[in-house]
């Protein structure tokens, strides 16, 4: 099971620009490395990361094999209302992970 | 005793064929079956695909990346774009490409006015010392870019793959 | 009976040979002792500093789950005996490797965890370098983060530490290099584009960017020996723990950083 670390402020002022930081455990095997048997290690990466804010998508990133293992992605959003931030990762071999965080906006 | 005519022909053919084969093999080994390194041209091609017919100018984009990196496996990088991030004038997307990894694309992020600030941080893999280019796609369809040259060093004592 | 002049010459030669060895025998004085953290760039340090950006913390999260997992026929978890680890494990990593009273020789944290698993939980030991053992070790060692390394100074511990020191100062491998030559005598200098650190085990298990994963000191020492073109020890060799003990003693006073991040 993928381990996830999310850094989201618990509360924010309406209109405040906040930073969201995410970290997920994943090998991000590029598919270009050669194993000890001389064969290429097959690609196994996260390809898509999205964040929704009360259901509305506020950020999307398409990842390539050039993203480092245990992908770290940090971005910003405007605190518009209280609610739930949902983070979703998906990728090769049916990989899928979600994490949510609640934010109170006053 | 001279070879019967058909054998001679065959031998000649065989020799020619084997020379061809050797030459063929030589050719094959000279051209890698899979390009393990992209080229600066591949990066330019990738940029052309992203930008299309739109205008591309240098500026407004800041690429924060260490000029010298201790390990190419994990290079922290931040792209920030100078933009008011309003409905009328904002960054639509940020793309990052490189010139020496096996393929040119690194990441493409979709933003929008709700972002508040056009800044994305991540950690990337760089196969070698090379140039990295960040492109910002604006709401008016224009593109702005910035590049950085990064030197990648490697740790002194590494393990064998086992 | 040798002529006097010859004796004096031999004595001088012998002293000349000894003098360099005597100069190398000292470990780094406390005032100059610095963690590998200080030899890294600003960006790498930032990765270590941010608990939510440090990939090693993902393993610490994993370790917490394992700490509470019931194992063996009696269904005991680590928590069953040790309770709240924030109290019970605080300071433990700072004094490891430690002499096990029954075995009569030092064990490192990984071995200590496995001894608990086999003897107290009656369950199988975890293989070295397995994600589970790394996670558990990281979780335990993390409870000592910020505490100075403090290996006790008793005769028994010192005996094994001296054995570790002997390994550290011995020339080995195809390059005929000793650990001391790089890490005592030439720390701060460059070796192939990388700065030579002092080699203090302040943050193990740590996230090595080269590995793109968490790894143990045992694994790092293997890398060192391979890098020196010397024969690495088997994973369960007593020499490894002797060396780990000497390294910990040599790092005394520096604080634990687990999980550290290193190139």
Overview of the molecule:
The complex is a heterotrimer of chains A (106), B (162) and C (263). Chain A has a single domain (4-34, 41-105), classed as Immunoglobulin-like, CATH 2.60.40. Chain A is 0% helix and 54% strand. Chain A contains no helices and 8 strands. Chain A has a 5-stranded mixed sheet, with no helix packed on it. In chain A, strands 1-3-6 form a 3-stranded antiparallel sheet, with no helix packed on it. The radius of gyration of chain A is 16 Å and the shape is elongated. The relative contact order of chain A is 0.32. The model of chain A has no long low-confidence stretch (mean pLDDT 96). Chain B has 2 domains: 1-31; 40-152, Sandwich (Immunoglobulin-like), CATH 2.60.40.2470. In chain B, the strands form 2 sheets. In chain B, strands 1, 3, 5, 6, 8 and 9 form a 6-stranded mixed sheet that branches. A 3-stranded antiparallel sheet of chain B has the order 2-4-7, with no helix packed on it. In chain B, strand 8 (130-138) and strand 9 form a beta hairpin. The longest helix of chain B is centred in the N-terminal third of the chain and has 26 residues, at 5-30. Chain B starts with a helix and ends in a 10-residue tail after the last strand. In chain B, 36% of the residues are buried. Residues 1-35 of chain B have low confidence and may be disordered. Chain C has a single domain (31-262), classed as Cytochrome Bc1 Complex, Chain D, domain 2. Chain C is 45% helix and 7% strand. Chain C has helices spanning 4-24, 42-49, 55-67, 78-82, 85-88, 109-119, 131-142, 155-169, 179-183, 217-227, 238-250; strands at 98-100, 105-107, 190-191, 194-195, 206-208, 213-215, 261-262. In chain C, strands 6-5-7 form a 3-stranded mixed sheet. In chain C, strands 1-2 form a two-stranded antiparallel sheet. In chain C, a hairpin with a 4-residue loop joins strand 5 (206-208) and strand 6 (213-215). In chain C, helix 6 (109-119) packs across helix 7 (131-142) and helix 8 crosses helix 11 (238-250). The longest helix of chain C is centred in the N-terminal third of the chain and has 21 residues, at 4-24. Chain C is globular, with a radius of gyration of 21 Å. Mean pLDDT of chain C is 90; it is low at 11-25. Chains A and B meet through strand 3, strand 5 and strand 6 of A and strand 4, strand 6 and strand 7 of B.
């Amino acid at each position: 099971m993928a381990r996830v670390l999310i850094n989201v402020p618990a509360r924010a002022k309406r209109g405040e620009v906040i930073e969201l930081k995410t970290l997920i455990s994943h090998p991000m095997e590029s598919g270009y490395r050669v194993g000890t048997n001389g064969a290429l290690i097959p690609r196994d990466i996260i390809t898509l990361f999205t964040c929704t804010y009360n259901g509305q998508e506020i950020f999307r990133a398409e990842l390539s094999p050039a993203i480092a293992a245990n992908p770290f992605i940090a971005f910003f959003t405007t605190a518009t209302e209280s609610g739930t931030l949902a983070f979703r990762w998906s990728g090769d071999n049916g990989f899928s992970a979600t994490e949510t965080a609640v934010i109170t906006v006053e | 005793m001279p070879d019967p005519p058909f054998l001679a022909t065959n031998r000649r053919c065989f020799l020619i064929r084997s020379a061809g084969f050797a030459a063929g093999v030589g050719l094959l080994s000279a051209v890698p079956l899979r390009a393990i390194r992209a080229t600066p041209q591949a990066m330019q091609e990738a940029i052309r695909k992203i930008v299309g017919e739109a205008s591309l100018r240098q500026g407004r984009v800041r690429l924060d990346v260490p000029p010298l990196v201790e390990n190419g496996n994990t290079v922290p990088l931040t792209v920030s774009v100078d933009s008011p991030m309003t409905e009328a004038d904002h960054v639509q997307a940020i793309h990052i490409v490189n010139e020496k990894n096996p393929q040119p694309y690194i990441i493409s992020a979709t933003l929008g006015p709700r972002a508040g600030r056009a800044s994305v941080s991540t950690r990337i893999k760089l196969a070698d010392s090379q140039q990295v280019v960040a492109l910002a796609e604006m709401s008016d369809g224009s593109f702005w870019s910035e590049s950085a040259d990064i030197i990648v060093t490697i740790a002194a004592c590494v393990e064998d793959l086992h | 009976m040798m002529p006097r002049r010859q004796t004096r010459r031999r004595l001088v030669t012998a002293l000349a040979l000894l003098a360099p060895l005597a100069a190398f025998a000292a470990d780094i004085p406390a005032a100059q002792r610095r963690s590998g953290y200080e030899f890294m760039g600003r960006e790498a340090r930032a990765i270590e500093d941010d608990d939510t950006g440090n990939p090693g913390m993902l393993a610490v999260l994993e370790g917490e789950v394992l700490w509470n997992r019931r194992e063996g026929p009696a269904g005991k978890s680590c928590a069953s005996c040790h309770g709240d680890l924030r109290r019970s494990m605080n300071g433990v990593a700072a004094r490891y490797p430690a002499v096990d009273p029954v075995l009569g020789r030092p064990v490192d944290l990984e071995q200590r965890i496995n001894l608990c698993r086999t003897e107290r939980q009656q369950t199988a030991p975890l293989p070295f370098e397995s994600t589970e053992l790394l996670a558990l070790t990281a979780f335990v060692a993390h409870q000592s983060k910020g505490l100075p390394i403090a290996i006790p100074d008793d005769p028994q511990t010192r005996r094994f530490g001296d054995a570790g020191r002997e390994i550290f100062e011995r020339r080995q491998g195809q390059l005929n290099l000793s650990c001391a030559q790089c890490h005592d005598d030439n720390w701060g200098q460059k070796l192939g584009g990388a700065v030579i650190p002092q080699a203090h085990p302040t943050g193990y298990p740590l996230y090595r960017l080269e590995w793109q994963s968490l790894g143990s000191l045992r694994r790092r020492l293997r890398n060192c020996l391979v890098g020196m073109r010397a024969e690495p020890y088997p994973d369960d060799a007593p020499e490894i723990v002797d060396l780990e003990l000497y390294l910990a003693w040599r790092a005394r006073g520096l604080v634990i950083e687990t999980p550290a991040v290193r190139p």
